[in-house]
Structure formats: structure tokens, C-alpha cells
Design goal:
alpha/beta; Rossmann fold; eight-stranded mixed beta sheet; six-stranded parallel beta sheet; about 15% strand
Length: about 400
């Protein structure tokens, strides 16, 4: 079962903001449902990321509209086994690996009854259709083909990829799917999932109290996310080492935490840029938005994302993003040449794109203004509306 740790975003040897108030808008009519979400972790987990933010917004939004919502997830140190937060019931059982079989066994035994089960498939599927006839929706942020071999050897990675690419599509053959981007939808179709069964429901954005915080007077690049290998923060450190002499005062903020953090700090030391980089660790929502507002550009060298929520969060502050063209949903959340820059694969191309944004104030301003306009169309209330239409049907908001 070691191969599970990759889809969980963890090292093989490890265990373990305020939401948009408009999401509480009540539809004219609807049928209240019992909705059970199965996810390996929740937003309160110390290793939570964008997928868990999406889950929380959807779950709390549905609960606020009168639905009975439960999230079944893995236990972790300090997490209560059962609690209710903002109207959502949390049931934490089984740990990082045991959550999958225990969730399935609980369904088979009928201990958690629901009208709809939403499996959150982060590489490893929960396989809920095997448990009975309850309606199942499979929520997929992105396909993990590129990520399996980044931690595991060829054999283990092959097993994991087989589960995701061959077993899951067969088990969910009669189920509906939700993808968070058109790119993810296309990937699922390539695995044999019927396109007509996939609904695309995008991420939203938070309403930020002070979106006009002051920009840093000196060049500042920000990386934000979990510190795990597939985020490839090393490429941002490489860019810092090369661009530092060209841009006096250039600094890099690495915002987030994860088991790969010590390796990144060692790498920064080897490059001789430790004095120019700040590893902030986890920060509050308010601090996150302050850092994004100060930044000149968001560097997002991840190998794969379903959407890239932080791109939209940066865009709220008029901060453009730089990422790779083939990194899945980032080509959907970033409009190349309009709200940010997408580059071809490779460190040289990534550094060149960052150089272009840092060196050209007019380009930076144009991209930032367009980014702010682009992301304004993504609101969590719209995400909740789309989910309720899918779950309930015509009685939900138009």
C-alpha cells in the first residue's frame, strides 16, 4: 500500500478565510439531500491544499442551503474523530491508508446512509459503486499520470497508474463525474470516460476585504502551495539564482509547508540564494492574500494541476502568473499572454518567462489588470449553484 502515499501527496515514510458569503443564497425551490463526501483529507488537515479548499466550499455551501452534508475522511493527529463545522459533519476514520477500505466497508454495512455519495478521487479511488446502488459522483481534480513515478519506482508507479487509469474508469462506468477544468475533462475522456457523463464545475474565489494592498517596491516572486516534489519549487529557486544579478533586491517567498521543505532549503543553500528566499511555512488566509498582493508575479512550476486555485487567488490582487503550458488545468486558469504567461517545459523557458514579467512594468500591469478582470467571474456561489443543479436538478438555481 506504499503507492497510496503519492496520490495523497505525502512522503512514503510519513503518517499523517472566510468563504464567500454569497454562497449562502437560497434557491427558490429544491429537495434537500443527504450528501456524503469521501475524501482522504479535509481542509483542516495539516497537509490540505486546493482540492480540500474546493471540498470545503462546496460542502459548507450545500449545508448552508439546507442539505445534510457529511465528509468522511482520514484521521490525523489533533483531529477530532467526529465534529460539526459550519454545518458540515466530519467523520475521521482510518488514517491515511485505512480511510479507503474503512469508508467502503462502512457503506457496505449501511452505517452511513446518503442520497448521493461524492468520491473525491485524488489518484486513489474510493470505489463506492462497489458498495451498492446509491448514486455516486466521482470528483476528479486532475489525472495523476505524471505524478506516480515522481516518488515511486517503476513497478509501484505502474500499479498506482493502473488503478487510476484502468480500474477506476470501469468501476465508475455507470457514475457521473465532475471535473474542475476542461483539461481534466479531456484527460478523463482519454481514459475512456464518456464525455456526456462529465460536468465541469470550476473553483471560485474568496471575496477579499482589501484587494488593493501595496505592491512590493522591490522585485518579489511568490511560490504558494504544498512543498512536495511535483510542485517543482526547485525551478523557482533556479530562476532566482539566475535572475538575482539582473534584478537588484530580487526575493522569493515560498509560502506553504510539506515534507519536501528541508530538501528545498538545502537546495537553496547549494545555489547560494538562501539570503534571498524566505520559507514562510503555513500562513493564515489574511497573510496569504497580503503576500500575493505584494508579489510582482506568482511562479507556479508544478508539473500538473487540475485548475490552480492559487492562480485565481493571485489574480484577485492583479498579480499575474507564470506556469507551464502542459501542466493540465493551468492552461485553463491562466490565459496565455493575457492574464499570465505559459511556457514550454524546462527550467530555461520558465526562467525566461519570469524574466519577461519582472523586466517589463507595462507587461506586468497589463497582465495583472486582465487577471483581476478574468478571475472576477469565478465565485464560490456559482460553484455551489452548479453543484446543486447537478445534485437536485431543475429546482436548483439557474
Amino acid at each position: 500500500m506504499r503507492y497510496l502515499s503519492l496520490c495523497l501527496g505525502l512522503h512514503p515514510h510519513m503518517l499523517g478565510a472566510k468563504s464567500d458569503p454569497s454562497r449562502q443564497r437560497m434557491p427558490v425551490s429544491r429537495r434537500h439531500l443527504r450528501v456524503l463526501f469521501l475524501s482522504w483529507r479535509d481542509h483542516h488537515h495539516p497537509e490540505a491544499g486546493g482540492a480540500e479548499k474546493y471540498l470545503t466550499e462546496v460542502a459548507e455551501g450545500l449545508a448552508g442551503r439546507g442539505h445534510q452534508v457529511t465528509i468522511r475522511t482520514a484521521a490525523y493527529p489533533g483531529g477530532l474523530p467526529d465534529e460539526v463545522v459550519h454545518g458540515v459533519a466530519y467523520s475521521r476514520r482510518g488514517g491515511h491508508y485505512g480511510v479507503f477500505p474503512r469508508a467502503l466497508a462502512s457503506q457496505v454495512a449501511g452505517r452511513q446512509r446518503a442520497d448521493v455519495i461524492v468520491d473525491v478521487q485524488n489518484g486513489m479511488p474510493f470505489l463506492s459503486p462497489l458498495a451498492g446502488r446509491t448514486r455516486v459522483i466521482n470528483l476528479v481534480h486532475h489525472v495523476h499520470k505524471e505524478q506516480w513515478p515522481m516518488v515511486f519506482g517503476q513497478r509501484a508507479a505502474g500499479v498506482g497508474w493502473a488503478l487510476e487509469s484502468r480500474v477506476a474508469p470501469r468501476v465508475y462506468a455507470g457514475s457521473e463525474y465532475v471535473a474542475v477544468s476542461d483539461s481534466t475533462r479531456a484527460e478523463l475522456v482519454s481514459l475512456g470516460v464518456d464525455a456526456d457523463r462529465i460536468t465541469v464545475i470550476h473553483n471560485g474565489t474568496d471575496v477579499v476585504a482589501d484587494p488593493d494592498a501595496r505592491r512590493s517596491p522591490t522585485p518579489l516572486v511568490t511560490v504558494l502551495g504544498r512543498l512536495v516534489p511535483h510542485k517543482r519549487v526547485e525551478l523557482a529557486l533556479d530562476a532566482l539564482a539566475e535572475l538575482g544579478p539582473q534584478f537588484p533586491g530580487l526575493r522569493l517567498d515560498v509560502v506553504g509547508s510539506g515534507w519536501w521543505g528541508p530538501q528545498l532549503e538545502e537546495y537553496a543553500a547549494r545555489l547560494g540564494v538562501s539570503g534571498q528566499v524566505t520559507f514562510t511555512g503555513q500562513v493564515s488566509e489574511a497573510e496569504k492574500h497580503r503576500l500575493l498582493a505584494e508579489s510582482w508575479v506568482l511562479a507556479f512550476p508544478s508539473i500538473k494541476e487540475g485548475w490552480g486555485l492559487v492562480v485565481v487567488e493571485a489574480g484577485v490582487h492583479g498579480t499575474p502568473s507564470v506556469a507551464f503550458r502542459e501542466a493540465g488545468g493551468l492552461r485553463d486558469s491562466i490565459r496565455d499572454g493575457e492574464t499570465g504567461l505559459l511556457c514550454d517545459e524546462g527550467g530555461a523557458a520558465f526562467t525566461a518567462a519570469l524574466r519577461s514579467v519582472l523586466a517589463d512594468p507595462a507587461l506586468r500591469d497589463r497582465l495583472g489588470e486582465a487577471a483581476a478582470a478574468w478571475v472576477s467571474r469565478f465565485r464560490w456561489s456559482q460553484t455551489i449553484d452548479a453543484w446543486e443543479r447537478l445534485l437536485v436538478g431543475p429546482g436548483a438555481p439557474d
